[in-house]
Amino acid sequence: MSLPIRRHADVEQDILELAAWIARDSRETAFRFFDAVEDTVRSLRRMPRKGSLKNLRTPFQDVRTWAVRGFPNHLIVYEVRPSDVYVYAIVHGSRRYQRLVRERRK
């Protein structure tokens, strides 16, 4: 199965903000982060149901998270839909993202 990937409009900003934070310690690591995010998101096309299923108190049936390759504290928050994989956000794992998913679902 290979599903197309769609992203919420704010996902790019998520990535830029996280990379800026990482760059405070290492610009090289921040550049690696960009590539790792893209590679990891693309991998969801081939295996869309990998990652852990979340039990959010929302009407979402299949919201999952998957760690960014090489950056285990950074998560891709996504939902598998019948016609695509929808990425809601890229977040640091310590962040509470339930409200973010709800807001971005609208």
Q: How far apart, in Å, are the first and last alpha carbons?
A: 27 Å
> Strand-and-helix sequence, N→C?
EHHEEEEH
Overall structural class, as computed from helix and strand content, comes to alpha+beta
Gyration radius, to the nearest Å?
A: 13 Å
**What's the domain count?**
1
Record the strand order, biggest sheet: 1-5-4-3-2
- Here the CATH topology equals YaeB-like fold
In the CATH hierarchy, the architecture is 2-Layer Sandwich
Q: How would a crystallographer describe the biggest sheet?
A: 5 strands, mixed
Please explain how this structure is put together:
This protein has 106 residues and is of the alpha+beta class. The protein has helices at residues 11-23, 27-46, 98-105, and strands spanning 5-7, 52-53, 63-68, 71-80, 85-92. The chain has a 5-stranded mixed β-sheet with strand order 1-5-4-3-2, with helices on both faces. The model has no long low-confidence stretch (mean pLDDT 90).
Summary tags:
single chain; 106 residues; alpha+beta; YaeB-like fold; five-stranded mixed sheet; 3 helices; 27% strand
Q: What is the fold's blueprint, element by element?
A:
Layout: E1 5-7, H1 11-23, H2 27-46, E2 52-53, E3 63-68, E4 71-80, E5 85-92, H3 98-105
Parallel strand pairs: 1-5
Antiparallel strand pairs: 2-3, 3-4, 4-5
Helix pairs in contact: 1-2
Describe, in short, the structure shown.
The chain is of the alpha+beta class. The chain contains three helices and five strands. The protein has one domain: RelE-like (YaeB-like fold), CATH 3.30.2310.20.
